[in-house]
Fold this sequence. Notes:
With 424 residues, the protein is α/β, with parallel strands linked by helices.
Amino acid sequence: MKPIRLPEPPSPTMGVPEIFENGAYSVIRRAVVIGNGFPGSENQSLGLVRALGLYDKHVLFRVTRPRGGINEWLHWLPISLHKLLYYIIRRIYSYLRLIASRRRRLSPLPSEKGGSVGLSSILEADSKRIVNIARESYEKDGPLLVVASGRDTISVASSIKRLASEKVFLVQIQHPRSDLSRFDLVVTPQHDYYPLTPQAQEQVPRFLQRWITPREPPDEHVVLTMGALHQIDFAALRSAASTWHDEFAPLPKPLLVVNIGGPSCHCRYGTDLAKQLCTFVTNVHVSCGSVRISFSNRTPEKVSNIIIKELANNPKVYIWDGEEPNPYMGHLAWGDAFVVTADSVSMISEACSTGKPVYVMGSERCTWKLADFHKSLRERGVVRPFTGSEDISESWSYPPLNDTAEVARRVHEVLAERGLRVRP
């Protein structure tokens, strides 16, 4: 089997009008990524930076929330209020412990299971610090591209834009649920606008409708995508195909890859779906040369245990044990078809970027925006439901999802309109 052939990633200068080609523009040479500690969100920002050609010229900052214990009850609050309440709780806790025992020095209330709040290798996001970076290097390196993703990054990112509007171009990924004029560009999946559809209006009680956002259709600040942004492109798949050649090239074909996520509030499932998945894989394995199964870090143990128990002894099936190196990229490069659980927009988007057959397991259990996402993919012919009656040797194809490249193209266009250009 040959690695998948995708279009080459966009050129860093793609979409730049000719009038800017000879110097009538300001050049963006650096990027700052503001993350929230969740791989699914941060991967979207890094994917866009990569598509713009600035991956080697970016710095990652992270907005961190306290975790563990009472913090699991506070994570729905705005991050500034969450941190303030947690600080107060820690002080009260320390004071009470001090009264109870003055003989020993007390450690602070643990904020995270087995660790501190942040990661020492990642810089804590601070709007004033990033603004200073933008101002100090503006003359030499031009404006600073800031890419942020996730709810917790909104206040920091918008503060940076407010304090240094002429020296920063701000892209916010995922709908910020606030005034869009605070951002230069907002990148969000079209299913984020599901609350405006007639179906959603029927599902939401009338007294709650005024609290459902977004309340307005997308405006000129918004770029809509089908799925999630990511770092999977032609170059990444070509590299993975080479890296994993010795392990995957000898495998009997076709190779079916099964990626299993974990239940969420809008896609609930448990051992029942795991048992059904095992039955379906057993039914189709006759038409497969090989089956490779992997779990995500969100997969419940009760789900993975059932799949291991039912399928591990099948000679055609290999289940990744979680030890490094992670074969995920090798799976994308060498797989002939994919089965992905319906809970993960990211894993589905990445599989659909290959142009190979993608079957989704459990989409009928999804609700709200996630159900709308699956409906859009089916209508576009990108995915099919996994029923256990498929002949995996019969391939089918579609135009690969190329959201990241399309968003990068749009960023180039907006920058060019303002006399800006990305130059790695």
